[in-house]
Design brief:
alpha/beta, TIM Barrel, 30 strands, about 25% helix, globular
Length: about 575
């Protein structure tokens, strides 16, 4: 093949495809250049004046390297890998670093294998990170456990690209022996390690980075981003469905530190992917916020390729793989053509590949294992009249804690205004564990709302103001094999959406999932959910015990700052 590339470059034979009259961003030098871009087989072979077997005139448009999402959980889209690709590839994304942390917490290594195999049929490079923290902390119940010995055995597998986000940052900083075993195994295998270190700074950051951890996507402020870039971290600008701070945080980027930044989406829902976009939407957002568009494109392409060692990706130059997106301009980033390894795979926002045949093994189905729940299971008894109530921060997954006066009657709390019961029901091993707490600011009234997506152990998480409705919601989630549910107290009506793959994802096509889920979202908002919140997905983060400050686990209320349980009684 090398000979064919050389002959095409030297014009002894025509290139397979030529993008004529191209204006393109040279991410290697920061320039905007002009010339024909010649492609033969899977590679760019020349830039200049070329003729090709197929020629596409791209006058007035801009050609960019294919985008690289440096950290994403496909599961958070609620779509299969095939359907996920059908939405992101037409937007210009050609490579992702995928951490199947969510489905691995439910299904173990069968979840990793599912994501890998299901991704083989689509024109998207899916680099699989082996989840490092299953469960995320030792304080909760997950469907699987990956110990240091397990990581050491599996990190060498050919389908494993690296070690996923190391969320147990206290374990790294404290040099926990099992954590050290995982880190050393990754280094011995020559695999990259992703990070997750919210608010970790100073000496603790130094200790965390001495684990050989390379990236972090959990910075809350531009100042934290800049400080971590100063310490050699590849800092990820995140554009997720639940966290909306990329426009603020991109202020950390300047000409001196630009090479230390990447782009990622982390958790992005199907409807947002369909309606708003993927990395293209992140580019629109940061450029609109004032970031130099060449910086933005470089961050979304070359920087990620260099960080992750994706050789011959992330730039437009001879011998680089022909992963290209042709956009209207450097403000709107609307994709006209997308090429993957030289093949035209999407045009005008539509995929040119078929996803109707989806890989669906039995070992990722039927994953909700709970005994029938009753209204009495959701009684919350306090010792006095003062309780710790979890509070929300719209647009962010950080939570707070407020001590409130909460009265009781007949051994159960009387909910104050704008306060709901919150419950986490263990759903993997029939333990019967139920964590019970209080939540302020969600706005929901008149029943119960629940979901089997509850980061990161993915137990059932419920909120409501009616014990019977909460029990009915939990039982419905068991009956449908996982998903999303709303129960209305006044009518007894149940509205649900099945997520049959691990209780996290749907085997249906993207359009029907988006349509059905939107009906549930609309129902939730009609029942009072604060419109500044993602109706269901905000709920899914309230059990994430590695994000400050207070979270609820199936085993109880948890103080993330102290990394220990805390009594709900204040």
């Amino acid at each position: 093949m090398i000979e064919k590339y050389i002959n095409s470059a030297a014009k002894r034979v025509k290139a397979d495809t030529v993008l004529k009259n191209a204006t393109f961003v040279n991410t290697l030098t920061g320039k905007i250049e002009r010339g024909d871009i010649a492609i033969t087989a899977d590679r760019i072979v020349g830039i200049g004046a070329y003729s090709g077997v197929r020629e596409i005139d791209v006058s007035g448009k801009v050609v960019l390297p294919g985008y690289i999402d440096s950290h994403v959980h496909i599961e958070s889209s609620m779509l299969s890998p095939e359907e996920f690709a059908s939405l992101v590839v037409p937007r210009g994304t050609t490579s992702i670093i995928a951490d199947p942390h969510e489905i691995t917490n439910v299904c173990g290594m069968a979840g990793v294998e599912y994501i890998y195999k299901a991704s083989q049929s689509v024109p998207l490079d899916v680099h699989i990170q082996l989840p490092s923290c299953v469960p995320a902390t030792p304080f909760e119940t997950s469907g699987a456990i990956l110990s240091g010995d397990d990581i050491a055995a599996d990190i060498c597998r050919s389908e494993v690209f690296g070690l996923g986000e190391f969320m147990n940052f206290p374990g790294v900083i404290g040099a926990d022996p099992d954590v050290i075993k995982k880190l050393e195994a990754a280094h011995a295998a020559g695999k990259i390690i992703d990070g997750h270190a919210p608010c970790v700074m100073g000496d603790e950051l130094n200790a965390y980075l001495c684990g050989g951890i390379v990236t972090d996507h959990e910075c809350a402020t531009p100042e934290e981003m800049a400080a971590k870039a100063d310490r050699g971290v590849y800092v990820q600008l995140r554009h997720s469905s639940s966290i909306h701070d990329i426009a603020v945080n991109c202020a950390a980027v300047n000409a001196s530190n630009m090479s230390r930044f990447l782009m990622c989406t982390d958790d992005r829902h199907a409807a947002d992917l369909k309606q708003k976009g993927h990395i293209d939407d992140a580019l629109r957002t940061v450029v609109n916020a004032g970031l130099d568009p060449i910086f933005a494109v470089t961050i979304a392409t070359r920087n990620a390729a260099e960080c992750y060692g994706l050789k011959w990706r992330g730039a437009i130059a001879p011998f680089y793989f022909a992963d290209l997106v042709v956009v209207d301009d450097l403000k709107k980033f609307n994709a006209q053509y997308v090429f993957k390894d030289g093949a035209l795979v999407a045009k005008d926002g539509r995929p040119l590949f078929d996803t109707s045949k989806r890989y669906l093994p039995e070992d990722v189905l039927n994953t909700v294992h709970v005994n029938p729940l009753r209204a009495e299971d959701f009684i919350l008894s306090l010792k006095g009249d003062r309780a710790k109530v979890m509070t929300l921060n719209p647009g962010n997954i950080l939570t707070g804690c407020e001590v409130m006066k909460v009265e009781s009657r007949n051994g159960d709390v009387i909910l104050p205004d704008d306060v709901l019961k919150l419950a986490v029901v263990e759903r993997h091993k029939y333990t019967g564990n139920i964590g019970r707490g209080l939540l302020k600011g969600y706005g929901f009234k008149g029943g119960a709302l629940g979901i089997t997506i509850a980061h990161d152990s993915h137990n059932i998480i419920l909120l409501g103001d009616d014990n019977a409705a909460m029990a009915k919601a939990a039982n419905t989630l068991k009956d449908i094999g996982g998903g999303m549910v709303i129960v209305e107290s006044a009518t007894g009506e149940v509205h649900s959406l099945t997520l049959d793959i691990g209780g996290l994802m749907s085997s249906r096509d993207a359009d029907s999932l988006i349509s059905e889920s939107q009906k549930l979202y609309n129902r939730a908002y009609s029942m009072g959910v604060n419109k500044k919140l993602a109706a269901f997905m905000t709920l899914a983060f309230l059990s994430l015990a590695v994000i400050p400050h207070v979270k609820l686990l199936d085993t109880g209320l948890f103080d993330v700052d102290k990394f220990e349980f805390t009594d709900i009684n204040a």
